[in-house]
Amino acid sequence: MVFEFLSDQSVQYALISGIAIALFCSTVGLFLVLRKFALFGDALAHTAFGGVAFGLFIGVYPLWAAYIVSILGALGLTKLRQRFDISGDAAVAILLTSGIAVGIILFSITDVDDHQLDDEHDVKQLNGIQNIEESHDEESHDEESHDEESHDEESHDEESHDEESHDEHDMNDFRDMKHAHDMEEFLFGSILQIKQENVITILILCVIILIILRIIYKKLLYATFSEEQAKVSGIPVEKINYLLIGMSGVAAVTSMQLVGVLLVSALFVIPNVSAMLYGRSFKQTITLSTSFSLFSVVMGIIIAIPFGIEPSGCIVLLAIGILIVSLIIKSTGIVKTTGFSPKVA
Amino acid sequence: MIVDIENLSVDYSGIKALDKISFGIAEGDFLGIIGPNGAGKSTLFRCMLGLHTGYDGTIKFFDKDIHESKKYLSQIGYVPQKPVIDKNFPATIREILAMSQHSNNPKKIDDALQKVWMHELADRRIGDLSVGQQQRVFIAKALVNSPKILVLDEPVTGIDMYNQDLFFQILGDLNKKEKISIIWSSHDLDAVERLANKVACLNKTLFFHGISEDFFSDEEMMKKYSETSMQMHMHHH
Predict the structure, then answer these.
(1) Angstrom distance (rounded) from CA A226 to CA B127
(2) pLDDT value at residue A233
(3) Is residue B112 part of a domain?
(4) Among A55, A322, B99, B189, fewest CB within 10 Å belongs to which?
(5) What is the pTM of this model?
(6) A vs B: CB pairs below 8 A
(7) Cβ <8 Å between B90 and A233
(8) Nearest to A338 among B71, B96, B125 (CB)
């Protein structure tokens, strides 16, 4: 059967997580896009990368560290921005580059032994290499205790030294591989590695974010439309803004597992830009954006797996495909749309 | 008095923006606040609306100091100077009014739009309207919570004559028929003379506060206003 792979548990986990992530990224992202803060998600994801590295460095579960570091970083920068009147794009650049810089440094100095290795196979493999190393250490130690040194023994010594250095080389290779693998997972996403506990966490976060959005929807929309007027209406604009930043941080770190640090902003931005081409009202725009996002994520995973393509790239390319088709429809006037006019000749 | 301002002074990094302003607004007043650019009209509004809190003196709305509670804001409808609207903001006029409404009452939205003759365009996107139409939507938005006071900060800047006339007609009706008190800053002396029953002439300090006819019939005062405006104009250029 063509869709036999759908019965695979890891694919099912990927789809469930993907749907949840698509839902909250597109809704939170719409408010960021409307506030001309489209790349904020990207900045948060890059900060999260620094957070992941920090988690590995201090031996805390990397994702939790990422949540804390990216949310604290974003809130801190927002406070600084207000205090020193730093522009939005400059704030995004500061957050983005500092996150990635911290990540690179911490990844490079963190020893793989300290990494939180979830994969049993990796742990066994690593232990295996360590055992070999230890047994050879003992062997060479015993041999050193012998007073008599024969030619055979000498050659054996050399051999064992060769083996030892070879194993050490293997160990370093593995460490490098593990380092690269860890970094790659966070940079490009690892949706098929998602475990049951991750799925539950993602679903809970999704429900919490959607409930908060439902409760503060009117106030958030008003503060997005005009902060000054919202303040005059008695809306606690600062609190609402901090809440949006917090939700964006959670959304960015969570979606990092799906599409990776480098592509997070795609989920925040692209479906919303496409939806704004058609949406005649806010409700219509948010519905369209969510639909485009869900379509891209679900189809991206379904198409990518049988062809052995990386799902994250496939998801983003599908979202871009929808945007290109939308721009063509808009510019040729096939479907009458209002508002958002792309500068297409 | 529904608004009472006493000795209001504002200082921006050593530069006086307002200097010991005192005046009151009675229920049903249509107060035109006039003064040249940089006279402190917008600063006065920012203080009254709670957007600038670092001032000296007291501002009372409905006999309560605004530092004590922000509840007075629910009785105020505010129309800003220039609606800075993103053309691509994907919300309809109806949605704009709904988001600013404290309760959820669609009938009140229709009524408010009817008062500014915008009910037929209720489902259009806000960005698709002209500036004049957008400003009428902002009045409707200000009316949707049935305010006792409307505060308008130079609301007709950049609006064509036709829409300006419509705008003034709406304001006159709201003041006379709906009994809404209006505080309105403007450069347009003719319009202020025509509409306002009270005038406050401001240039960092308060030059005049009283009956509109008294101000406009006082040749000395008018001459002084023209000279000050000219000086400020020259200073700005």
Answers:
(1) 14
(2) 87
(3) no
(4) B189
(5) 0.79
(6) 77
(7) no
(8) B125
pLDDT digits (tens, 9 = 90+) for A13-59: 989 999 999 999 999 999 999 988 888 888 888 888 888 888 888 88
Residues of B with CB under 8 A from a CB of A: 49-51, 70-71, 73-74, 76, 78, 80, 84, 86-92, 95-96, 98-100, 102, 123-125, 127-128, 141
Task: For A1-17, write each residue's pLDDT tens digit.
Answer: 667 777 888 889 989 99
Tokens of B5: 């301002």
Could you give phi then psi for residue A305, rounded to 5 degrees?
A: -60, -55
Identity of the residue numbered A185: E
Asked whether residue B122 is domain-assigned, the answer is no
Give the one of B49, B86, B91 whose C-beta lies nearest to A282's C-beta. B91
Count how many Cα atoms sit within 13 Å of the Cα of residue A341 in the half-sphere of its side chain: 7
Is residue B91 a part of any domain in this protein?
A: no
In 3D space, the residue among A180, A165, A150, A192 whose CA is nearest the CA of residue A14 turns out to be A192
Which domain range does residue B33 map to? 3-82+147-236
**Is residue B96 included in any domain, yes or no?**
no
Please indicate whether, in this complex, the C-beta atoms of B99 and A221 are within 8 angstroms of each other: yes
Instruction: Give the integer Cα–Cα distance in Å for A200 and A104.
Output: 30
Measured distance CA(B1)–CA(A222) in Å, rounded? 31
pLDDT higher than threshold 50 for residue A122: no
Residue of B nearest to A342 (CA): B88
Please report which helix (H) or strand (E) contains residue B202, including its range.
Answer: strand B198-203
CA triple A208-A227-B93, angle to 5 deg: 90
Residue among A96, A100, A106 at smallest CA distance from A74: A96
Number of domains in chain B: 1
Of B49, B90, B98, the CB nearest to A339: B90
By three-state DSSP, how is residue B184 classified? strand
Q: Give the model confidence (pLDDT) of B9-52 as tens digits.
A: 998 888 888 889 999 999 989 999 988 888 888 899 999 998 88
Q: Where are the alpha helices (DSSP H) in B54-188?
A: 93-100, 106-115, 131-143, 161-176
The alpha-carbon gap from B197 to the nearest alpha carbon of chain A, in Å, equals: 26
